[in-house]
Fold this protein.
Amino acid sequence: MHEWALAEAVITAASKIAVKEELKEIKEIIVKIGELQQVDEDILIFAFNQLKKDLFRNTLFYIVKAKSKLECRVCGFKWDFKTQNLDENTVESIHFVPEVAHAYIKCLRCGSPDFEIIEGRGIWLEEIRGVK
Amino acid sequence: MKLLDPRSSVIDKRLKRIRRVIAVSSGKGGVGKSMIATVFALIMAKSGLKVGLFDLDFTNPSTHLIMGAKNVLPKEEKGIIPPFFNDLKYLSLVFYSGDKATPLRGVDVSNALIELLSVTQWGKLDVLVIDMPPGIGDVVLDLIRLVKKIEFLIVTTSSQIAFHTVKKQIKLLRELKVKTIGLVENMKMNKIKTIQEETEKLDLRFLGDIPYDSTLEESIGDCDKLLATNFSKMINHTLLIKEI
Ligand SMILES: Nc1ncnc2c1ncn2[C@@H]1O[C@H](COP(=O)(O)OP(=O)(O)O)[C@@H](O)[C@H]1O
Ligand SMILES: [Mg+2]
Ligand SMILES: [Zn+2]
């Protein structure tokens, strides 16, 4: 249920934006989740629904999944992150702090752990739609 | 409307019930930051305060070695709940990186820091002690940006080389208008007062010196032994939480 903390971060960020934009109600929130962090979509939606009040009474939450793209800084090789070859504990660790991927994953071509997470790291607030 | 990273907005909320956040920091490595942060936290916890210890030296975490923290793991419940170890709420990246080399670039360091700050549920604490990486890099700058109540406790050795980098750090902290509690001179082996005088010239409080303790090494990994060292007595004497 660490998704709950992330959902709360989204709600807090959206509330701040609503104040700035003078929104009275938030109709839609689109959240992107990167494959690397393995955020559980159902738990995230469940958490959002628990946090639905005030500005968010009628908010519809949409979740878009994004592939994680990694690029080696040494040889330039690019690859998509997949969990297949990692054991359960490793996937779990990366779920909590995606950066620890650098302790477990190596470039598929040259073996370097010095790669960049160019896309699809964690949770992202993609869009919010509200009424003034 | 295109938006960004939602995580940092929730950090204030996560730290709301913490009275003081003290970063044990130095421009230099190897001056005793981790040892001082750990023993200071342990002493306060034993005195009945609610204390947290947060190891933010991601590339060289060492508080788990100092305390001999084995088989402790955080719980997951509406975020990360730091486990209790020796009366401390304790969190280190080691819980996730498993003591493997974790090569992190600046952007990764920031991301890992923001992630931990935004999902960790510390609850109510009197003091959260942070063991910092050396220098004035990403962790220092991000913490100053994200944790408004942060205070710095500066550590140096008697060496002019260490103190030289520390002076630059003190100036930077001033420019950023960050609270600095004072300076500790660690591993002291002489009676020379240069560091004290220069610190006071900078208008920074000199908290005291801690002598070199040759029994410290053999106490590593055992909190009770650590607390019985002369080092621990001197920390207790130098860093009275009520007075700093
Ligand atoms: N007052 C002291 N007397 C003896 N050894 C010390 C003292 N303070 C620190 N040390 C030792 O010095 C080394 C570096 O300390 P550490 O806390 O890891 O430094 P840092 O975190 O600043 O890199 C460790 O081996 C530690 O046990
Ligand atoms: Mg250290
Ligand atoms: Zn490569």
